[in-house]
Amino acid sequence: MKSWSIGVVGLVALAVFVASSYGPTEGLVAVGILASAAVGIGWPHFLAVPAKKTLATVIGLSGAGSALAAGFVPAPGFLDATPAFIAAGVIAVFVVQLIRGTGQAQRLESTLGSCAGVLLSCLGAGWIAGARFNGIKEMVLVAALSAAVALLAGLLRWPDRVVAPLGIVAAGLVAPLAGLVFSNIAIVAAIVVGVVIGSVLVSFRRMVTLRLGRLNFQAVLGMGVAPVWAVGALCYFIDKLLIY
């Protein structure tokens, strides 16, 4: 599959996350579990590492547990359980590598890459926490619009040295405009959200351009969902630090 299809998958996933945030919490949690499963299945394929099924299970279950906790723990500690699920997932990754034994192919790459996958899968619970935080959805919408602009910039078939600053600047400009139109979020806070989210997403585009070989459907699915899902934590923490 073509690399631009990753951006399309990311846009679809982003739309689903935002739409779900305006429904009941249970629906958003269900979407979070599916997103974690998508990251778990696709991330090992994108990395092209061995033991894909086992690592997919570890990554997916870690993210699903984090999403469940974020949806049902009492306020205000929506993400209090997330570090525990990250730690459990990382430990499980090391256990898998120990079981594989010494001398196995791509052992270091598999360990480091899978730990990163666990982190991405668990951080997506921030979308759920952001939707529950004070019951206010404006920051979720502002963050989503910023992410959408960065993803659209990533679809351009231009060099990374052009697309990267373009995506960051565009996301940083759209965020305050969206904040003024859809809410009373402070301009500075909105700019921070846009720039940070834009920077993260264009960084993942660089990972795609550096990867050699063709991408199968699982790799496109995982790489399309993972960064969009993970920036939910950025949205939530910036909301708490700069607005609340």
Automatic annotation (TrEMBL):
The keyword Transmembrane applies. The keyword Cell inner membrane does not apply. It comes from the Bacteria. Keywords: Membrane, Transmembrane, Transmembrane helix. The chain crosses the membrane at residues 31-48, 55-75, 81-99, 111-130, 136-155, 162-179, 185-204, 216-239. This is Permease.
